[in-house]
Design brief:
Length: about 260
Amino acid sequence: MANVVLKTDKLGIDFGGLSAVSDFSLTVHEKEIAGLIGPNGAGKTTLFNLLTNVYTPTRGSIELAGKPTHGKSTAQLNHMGIARTFQNIRLFKDLTVLENVLVGLDRKIRYSLPTAIAHLPAFFRQEKLARERALELLSIFHMEGMANDKAGSLPYGAQRRLEIVRALATDPCILLLDEPAAGMNPSETAELMENIRKIRDTFGIAILLIEHDMKLVMGICENITVMSFGKVIARGTPEEIRTNPVVIEAYLGKKEGK
Ligand SMILES: Nc1ncnc2c1ncn2[C@@H]1O[C@H](COP(=O)(O)OP(=O)(O)O)[C@@H](O)[C@H]1O
Ligand SMILES: [Mg+2]
């Protein structure tokens, strides 16, 4: 059995009277592509906010590679190996594509100003290495040619891909993707699906994917967890989920309008 990368135990958070996530237990293994689906408002993004300590859990615990994440900052958790993208794209739109990736790499490639001045060649070496690494990462999505374009000027699909590259630059052991195919056309979605697999294989990392595009989710996830109203209502293989009456009902919206 592969090592456990992420484990949550009875995780929960309340916003006022609303229990946005409750009793959420999940285990993700090394190199696993796990899916998280559910109707709008089910608590999926909130779960990502809990996993990255954007929100402090009201109940329960999280372990990243066997270490409790309680009390860590989002940046510290990133160092510990958890990286994410956002449902609404967050890029430095006025920086270039390359610079956006360098921001992610900066966590890994260290130099201080005194070092830079005293050892200029070393500084330039690191700088050069960082640029080479950034271009290499961009090449996953064939985006090297856009390196000097402003991030904000890219087409929507390319901005989504850039966000993934920037997250990868931080060298995570698990990557959380929040609706990466949102707003993409069918061919971009199909390409993304191949690329998510490629990322897992190339980097040997685990991926936890929130996605509405069922073809994408069913096509690449090995295990799927279904949430509704903050709770896990089903989990299983794509085949098990596809045919689960509880899931079908949640989606057809007897209780849920959206
Ligand atoms: N910061 C917050 N304050 C109050 N309610 C919130 C907050 N964040 C999310 N919620 C509520 O939690 C529920 C789950 O939202 P969300 O996690 O965004 O759902 P999903 O990503 O599954 O569509 C919603 O009812 C939402 O309004
Ligand atoms: Mg969401």
